[in-house]
């Protein structure tokens, strides 16, 4: 076989086998390995490693996209000094992800602007990096979706999709009160997640006020019972980061007093 024909065939097979990194790198790497006098096995190993690395990266990108984060936030941009009430040690421990292996939940409680969504996103993004299936949603949009799916008689299918996740983030419980049907559907999600997948819930409400949002005392009790059976609680009782930032900006823009 001529060298030209072998190249054409090789590249065709690599495309069919869906090995884009091998296809792109095999020529360059052959030169590098030749210069280094590396053996065939090392050459092949490096090629395969490159393919694996890129495959993992693409899978992570798909998981992040499927998670539906409103804005991507990581822990590196979180300033713990600005929010000293947050238990930094616990956040760092949670970043290791063992709570998901143990199907434990995380509750982030605090006023608006204290970084709850930021931290929930950082934790969930980390879970994506660890190869886990994640979904991020606000409580309001989840409830809307549940009502829609029920209308379409697709509720069971939707629940099955949720059960397939390792981690479900429910952002902003308490901003909008749920209807009776909405609260019941939300309860079913929490109930089915119990011991199957982890939940991260962010809320501006202390436990005593949850009944106001969910409507029924009995349902709230049952929901809290499941949710808090194995839970890590992160409380932020500081002031709003946004507010502090805009105050700073305002201060800088005002002319100095003589
Ligand atoms: P919450 O969900 O508690 O209302 P967010 O997480 O949405 O608050 O925070 C509001 C904004 O302030 C976001 O842009 C977030 O990234 C930023 N923010 C909040 N707290 C911090 C912090 N401690 N360090 C850095 N950025 C923060
Ligand atoms: Mg928020």
Give a structural overview.
This protein has 12 helices and 5 strands. The N and C termini lie far apart (88 Å). 24% of the residues are buried. It has 258 residues and is α/β, with parallel strands linked by helices. It has helices spanning 3-16, 20-36, 40-67, 88-94, 98-101, 116-129, 139-151, 155-163, 180-193, 210-214, 217-227, 241-253, and strands spanning 105-110, 134-138, 167-173, 198-203, 231-236. The protein has a 5-stranded parallel sheet with strand order 2-3-4-1-5. Bound molecules: adenosine-5'-diphosphate and magnesium ion.
Which key features would you list for this structure?
258 residues; alpha/beta; 5-stranded parallel sheet; 58% helix; binds magnesium ion
Bound molecules: adenosine-5'-diphosphate, magnesium ion
SS strand fraction: 5-15%
- Helical segment count: 12
How is the largest sheet built, in terms of strand order? 2-3-4-1-5
User: Mean pLDDT score, rounded?
Assistant: 93
List the helices and strands in order: HHHHHEHEHHEHEHHEH
Low-confidence stretches: none
């Amino acid at each position: 076989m001529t060298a030209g024909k072998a190249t054409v065939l090789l590249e065709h097979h690599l495309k069919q086998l869906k090995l884009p990194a091998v296809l792109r790198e095999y020529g360059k790497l052959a030169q590098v390995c030749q210069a280094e006098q590396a053996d065939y096995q090392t050459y092949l190993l490096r090629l395969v490693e490159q393919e694996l690395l890129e495959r993992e990266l693409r899978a992570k990108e798909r998981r992040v996209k499927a998670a539906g984060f409103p804005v991507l936030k990581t822990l590196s941009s979180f300033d713990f000094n600005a929010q000293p009430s947050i238990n930094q040690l616990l956040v760092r421990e949670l970043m290791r992800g063992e709570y998901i292996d143990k199907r434990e939940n995380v509750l982030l409680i605090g006023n608006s602007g204290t970084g709850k969504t930021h931290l929930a996103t950082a934790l969930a993004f980390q879970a994506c990096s660890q190869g886990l299936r994640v979904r991020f949603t606000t409580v309001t949009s989840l409830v809307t979706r549940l009502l829609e799916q029920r209308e379409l008689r697709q509720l069971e299918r939707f629940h099955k999709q949720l059960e397939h996740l390792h981690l479900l983030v429910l952002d902003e419980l308490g901003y909008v009160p749920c209807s009776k049907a909405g609260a019941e559907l939300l309860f079913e999600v929490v109930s089915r997640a119990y011991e199957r997948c982890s939940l991260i819930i962010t809320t501006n409400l202390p436990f005593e006020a949850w009944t106001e949002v969910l409507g029924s005392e009995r349902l709230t009790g049952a929901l809290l019972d499941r949710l808090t059976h194995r839970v890590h609680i992160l409380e932020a009782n500081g002031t709003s980061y946004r507010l502090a930032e805009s105050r700073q900006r305002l201060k800088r823009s005002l002319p100095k007093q003589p």
